[in-house]
Amino acid sequence: MKKKILLMISMCLIVLGLTACGEDPTKVDYNGFTYDQLKGACENAVNILQSMSESDKAGALASGDEVMVNLITRWEEATKDVGEYQKLGEFIIEKSGKTLTCEQRIIYAGRPVILTYVYKYHNMELEDITVDQVQTLGEKMTNAALNTLMGMGVVFTVLILISLIIRCFKFLSYFEKKGSKETAPVKEQTVAPVPPAVEEAMAAQDGLELAAVIAAAIAASTGTSTDDFVVRSIKRRF
Q1: Are 103 and 91 in contact (CB under 8 A)?
Q2: What's the distance, Cα to Cα, between the start and end of the chain in Å?
Q3: CA dihedral 27, 28, 34, 35 (to 10 degrees)
Q4: CA 198 to mean position of chain CA atoms
Q5: Which of 29, 32, 56, 223 has the most CB atoms within 10 Å of its CB?
């Protein structure tokens, strides 16, 4: 019995989930705006941009209105080289968190273009308007590959720079040690020449000292006093 009840509850939850997922977007209230109102805003923008002359575009660009300037600039870039205008395509509304996105597909002979309105859902204030070309699968894959290669190139470049910086630390420590070992050169001190008078005085002083030493040695060997000795002269023989 319990298994049957659980099975019935599960079936009800599945049915409710499928009903919620398959809800008709044209019947939903988008914070006070209907599906037709949001779709009409995008269609009117497309019709106005399609019918604007070059003078009207120049005047709008010169007005200084940031929203209008961005819209016209992006429109000109997106509709360049896409061929002739054919018709309006599918209109899609998506709510993600606090953002409501409205996408109007515009069919051209060359490739489709998508006009996107982005609203803040809590007050339905227009946040941004973008116009982009619809890329083919090959173009998307090419862009993804280029982005991947660019990211990998940046990563490897940074790693190479880090390894070079780490390698430079070794040379810095080497130069620091070498600089600490090197000492400042010692300046040679020049000895000033001794004047002749000073040399004679030094020689006389040396002679007196030598005489005193000899007299003391003789007195010690003979047992007499140095007072009885008189040194007349000292001659050096080489």
Answers
A1: yes
A2: 141
A3: -70
A4: 78
A5: 56
Cα–Cα dist 150/14, whole Å: 45
User: How far apart are the C-alpha atoms of 79 and 74, rounded to whole Å?
Assistant: 9
Residue type at position 99: T
> In 129-147, which positions are buried (b, 16+ CB within 10 angstroms) versus exposed (e)?
bbbebbeeeeeeeeeeeee
**Cα(76)–Cα(70) distance, rounded to whole angstroms?**
10
Tokens (6 digits) for 78: 């997106």
Instruction: Name the one residue in this structure whose structure tokens are 């290669």.
Output: 149
pLDDT averages per 10-residue partition of the chain, 238 residues? 46 40 77 91 90 88 85 89 91 91 93 92 89 82 86 90 83 70 58 56 62 72 67 60
Question: In this structure, how many other beta carbons lie within 10 angstroms of the beta carbon of residue 57?
Answer: 16
Can you tell me the distance from the alpha carbon of 204 to that of 194, in angstroms, rounded to the nearest whole number? 15
d(CA 231, CA 215): 8
d(CA 63, CA 72): 12
| Dihedral sign for Cα atoms in the order 16, 21, 23, 29 | positive
Three-state SS at 105: strand
In the chain, at which residue ranges do the beta strands (DSSP E only) sit? 85-96, 99-108, 113-120, 125-133
125-133 and 113-120 as β-strands: parallel, antiparallel, unpaired?
antiparallel
3-state secondary structure of 106: strand
The token duo for 238 is 């080489």
Q: Decide: 64 and 134 in contact? Cβ < 8 Å.
A: no
Length of the chain: 238
pTM (global) more than 0.70: no
